[in-house]
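Dear Dr. H.,

I hope your travels went smoothly. While you were away I took the liberty of generating a structure for the chain from your last submission, since the lab meeting agenda had it listed for discussion. I wanted you to have the full record in hand beforehand rather than looking at slides cold. The sequence, exactly as received, is reproduced here:
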Amino acid sequence: MIKIFFIFPILLFANYPKLQLNGSGIREATVFNIDVYKASLYLPRKSKNVTEIASMFPKRVTMRFLRDIPYDKFEESIVKSFKKHSMYNEDSKKLLKSWKKVVSKINEGTILDLLVGKNSISITNGKQKSTFVSDQLAKDFHLLWLGSKSNLSMKNGLLGIDRN
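The corresponding predicted structure, in token form, is as follows:
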């Protein structure tokens, strides 16, 4: 299978301190390992330590979709991750509801930026933005990609761990 890679900027500026690219990974789905999106993690400083990353703010995850996905399938996969990491609660349900206003359709090439502050999570699609305030959800949000039950290939990519 041919892998398609996109180059993400090394540094991002968003009225916040400089964020550096920590690592990138491809999210694959199904037994056929179909590439769904490429995610890149940006942090104030590089780290391979999940505990250290948990305490860093802000952090940003940029997702570039490699195929069209109906929003309900995207939401279903996020809900599944929330549940897997024991994060599915009223706050996560409200967060997803606020996202739907920004992300009603995902096409190949769609880019979503998730900016996580100490007590908020913002999502933008380049045109619209939604911010949701929740101390606990912001604190744990990185677990969707970096938790002990996360996809290992994606986790290693975001941590910048060499796959060889």
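Two observations you may find useful: The chain has one domain: 11-158. The chain is about 30% helix and 30% strand.

With kind regards,
E. W.
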